[in-house]
Amino acid sequence: MIQLNAPFTEEKVRNLKLGDQVEITGIVFTGRDAVHKWLSEGNNPPVSFENGIIYHCGPVVMPQGAGAKKGWKVTAAGPTTSIREEPYQAGVIERLKVRAVIGKGGMGEKTRLACQQFGCVYLHAIGGAAQVLAEKIVKVQNVYMLEKFGSPEAIWQLEVLSFPAVVTIDAHGNSLHREIDSLSKSKFEELLKR
Amino acid sequence: MITHTMSNAKAQKQVFESLIEIIRKTSTELPGDVIRAVEKGKSAESPNSSAAYAMNIICQNIDLAKVKSQPLCQDTGTVIFYAYYPKKWDYSVVHKLIEKAVSAATKKGYLRQNSVNSLTGKNSGTNVGPGAPYVHCEAWAKDEFEFKVMLKGGGCENVGAQYSLPDGRIGAGRDLKGVRKCILDAVYQAQGKGCGPGILGVCVGGDRASGFVHSKEQFLRKLDDKNKIKELAELEEQMVKEANELGIGPMGFGGKTTLMGCKIGALDRVPASFFVSVSYMCWAYRRQGAKLDKAGKIQKWLY
Ligand code: SF4
Predict the structure, then answer these.
(1) What interhelical angle do B176-190 and B230-245 show, nearest 10?
(2) Residue B179: closest CA among chain A residues belongs to which residue?
(3) What is the pTM for the complete model shown?
């Protein structure tokens, strides 16, 4: 198990390799379809993503407390399918100097190349593990673009503690998704001939 | 007459309450046969592998959701109901009670607000709308109710597939050998995208609509049951074994458990068509059911 603690630097993520099991501690920003489309139109995020982590997630967040104690609590926060952001992700990684992207299901060639070129990794969270992952979110620090995009699509600034994931695209041009696809493909072709 | 209406109102209220409890249990606990399959998958993976890591977290999640009585996965999916009710009850009353229970369970947080108008993009917020929930309702001769519920996630629904045989791309002809090729192709194409290890529901035959319906109905079967049709029972076993040879593994991380089950049914077809419909169910295989007495009280869980 590798502890990936903030601050996330290019050096730290370049040290990770395919199949590494990591636990992330620090700040992550949620961002899914609306955010990625909007960022790729050239808009700047309301908070810097430099050396930051983007999490493909539409969390279920409940308001809590009142007055000065008013805040939020995340009740479910599993990853959503990442491939929908494939058209935008590479550009976002390059322009905003994002160091890691968390999601599920893997990403494609453009993202793999951007990870290699600009020093970023794709971390695969466990799809469907909403309760375990919600427990790893210790604090909602802030929310941006809530009015514009609505709750699941907003940018939530979350403090996470030992959030589990697996490196499936590293910063050296390797992709577990590509590898598994080609391994299973040759097996599949062999089975077809049987 | 008055007492009859009153007692009916009471039974309706009780059925409504029981339905909410069935939905709660479905969304927060996996049935025993599924838990056993997940555990078997976990122990098959080599220690310290990414696959074992994923299976461990899945198991922790199953325990935690049950203790907290909160949804296993935040995508509570399409709500699918199979309902059987005493003849003297009216169809529309039963259907309405299901809708009301779905809406109440959504308010309680057992279901996510998950029904979006396809034209306007607006979320009804209640999980009730055209086609939502999906309800199959039938009166029967018994003086009791039976409800079965399934929550079918979106991510795994997206990797379902339908084949029209013959299919030249994979060399699948109109026989069980061809069916086998379709199933293997569906598993290969899905990779880890459907939150595997998964379970397949397959229908051989039917038309494009009935094929998919019947493929989903396979998910109402228990994982450890045995198909009554001998050829299909054999094919089911073979498919699990061969799909696991593909090595896709949990979440597509690579590993031994790609499929935890494969259930196959068959419908008649017209001579011109031969469809194979494959539905994929994620590890969060939420299915439950209960028998209710005539007063609407839960008597027995089905899974
Ligand atoms: S596919 Fe299943 S486990 Fe994965 S996010 Fe969807 S409902 Fe949850």
Answers:
(1) 30
(2) A192
(3) 0.95
